[in-house]
UniProtKB/TrEMBL annotation:
One Pfam family, short name: ABC_tran
InterPro entries on file: AAA+_ATPase, ABC_AA/LPS_Transport, ABC_transporter-like_ATP-bd, ABC_transptr_urea_ATP-bd_UrtD, BCA_ABC_TP_C, P-loop_NTPase
UniProtKB keywords: ATP-binding, Nucleotide-binding, Transport
Protein name: ABC transporter ATP-binding protein
CDD domains in the record: ABC_Mj1267_LivG_branched
GO function term, MF aspect, one: ATP hydrolysis activity
SUPFAM superfamilies named in the record: P-loop containing nucleoside triphosphate hydrolases
GO cellular component labels: plasma membrane
UniProt cross-references to NCBIfam families, sorted A to Z: urea_trans_UrtD
Length: 243
C-alpha cells in the first residue's frame, strides 16, 4: 500500500453552533482516485474548504505530505500543491482555450497567436491540451465551448499547474452521458500522475468509474470501500440511496 499524501485527523468544523464536521478522520494515499459522496449537507464541500484553507476548523489537523495545512493561507496551500475546481467557472470566455491554459500555467500574459506559432506552447500546456482532448479547439475562444468541454478546460487549467492533489467538485454535473464517459476517462488519465478526490453524486457514474468511495453523513464518516461494498452497506442504503 502506498504512503499517505493527505491525512485528516479529528477534524471538527462548527458554524455558529452547528457541527458541519465531527471527529472526521480521512486518509488519501498517493496516486489514489477517491470519490466522496453523501446527501446534501453531509459536509463534503466543508471538507474541501478546510483542506484548501477557505474554512478554519475548530480543531483537528490536515497533514499534506507530512506538513500541517490548518492555519495556512489559501495561496500557500495552492503553492504546496493542492488544486481545486469551483462550481463557478474560472474560464476567460474571450480568450482562446490555449491562452486560458497559458494563463493558468503562470504565464504573465497570453502570447499573441502569431508569436505562439513561432515559439510554440510550453510542454506543460501542450500536454494538458492533449490530456483534456481539446487540441482541435486550441485557438477557439473558450466562450464557444460546450458545458462539458469547459469543465475539461477547467481540469486542464488545474493540471497545468502541476498540483499533487486535485479536488474536483461535481465535475460531471449537467453533462450528457457521452460527456460523462469522457470525463470518467479523463479522471483516470489525470489520476495516473496525481492524487484525485472527486465529490460526485451520480451513482451510475460511480459504478463505472469509481474504485474507492468515502461516504459522509451529517458531518461524520459513515463508511468507505469499493462501490459494491458501499452500495451493499445498509447504513448507506438508508441514508443516501434511499432504496
Ligand atoms: P455538502 O457539500 O455535503 O452538501 P456542506 O459541506 O456544503 O455539505 O454543508 C454541511 C453543512 O454545513 C450544511 O448543513 C450547511 O448548511 C452547513 N454550512 C456550510 N457552510 C456554512 C456556513 N458558512 N455557515 C453556516 N453553515 C454552513
Amino acid at each position: 500500500m502506498s504512503e499517505a499524501l493527505l491525512e485528516v485527523r479529528g477534524l471538527n468544523v462548527v458554524f455558529s453552533g452547528f457541527h458541519a464536521l465531527t471527529d472526521l478522520d480521512f486518509t488519501l494515499r498517493r496516486g489514489e482516485l477517491r470519490f466522496l459522496i453523501g446527501p446534501n449537507g453531509a459536509g463534503k464541500t466543508t471538507l474541501i474548504d478546510v483542506i484548501t484553507g477557505l474554512t478554519r476548523p475548530a480543531s483537528g489537523s490536515v497533514r499534506f505530505d507530512g506538513r500541517e495545512l490548518v492555519g495556512r493561507r489559501e495561496h500557500r496551500i495552492v503553492r504546496a500543491g493542492v488544486g481545486r475546481t469551483f462550481q463557478t467557472s474560472v474560464v476567460f470566455e474571450e480568450l482562446s482555450v490555449v491562452d486560458n491554459l497559458d494563463l493558468a500555467a503562470g504565464f504573465r500574459r497570453p502570447l499573441p497567436a502569431l508569436l505562439r506559432r513561432r515559439r510554440g506552447v510550453s510542454d506543460a500546456v501542450a500536454a494538458a491540451l492533449d490530456t483534456i482532448g481539446l487540441g482541435d479547439l486550441a485557438d477557439r475562444p473558450a466562450g464557444v465551448l460546450s458545458h462539458g468541454q469547459r469543465q475539461w478546460l477547467e481540469i486542464g487549467m488545474l493540471v497545468v499547474q502541476r498540483p499533487r492533489l486535485l479536488l474536483l467538485d461535481e465535475p460531471v454535473a449537467g453533462m450528457s452521458r457521452d460527456e460523462r464517459d469522457r470525463t470518467g476517462e479523463l479522471l483516470r488519465t489525470v489520476a495516473r500522475d496525481h492524487t484525485v478526490l472527486v465529490v460526485e453524486h451520480d451513482m451510475d457514474f460511480l459504478r463505472r468509474f469509481a474504485s474507492t468511495v468515502t461516504v459522509l453523513h451529517e458531518g461524520r464518516l459513515l463508511c468507505q470501500g469499493t462501490v459494491a461494498q458501499v452500495q451493499a452497506d445498509p447504513r448507506v442504503q438508508e441514508v443516501y440511496l434511499g432504496r
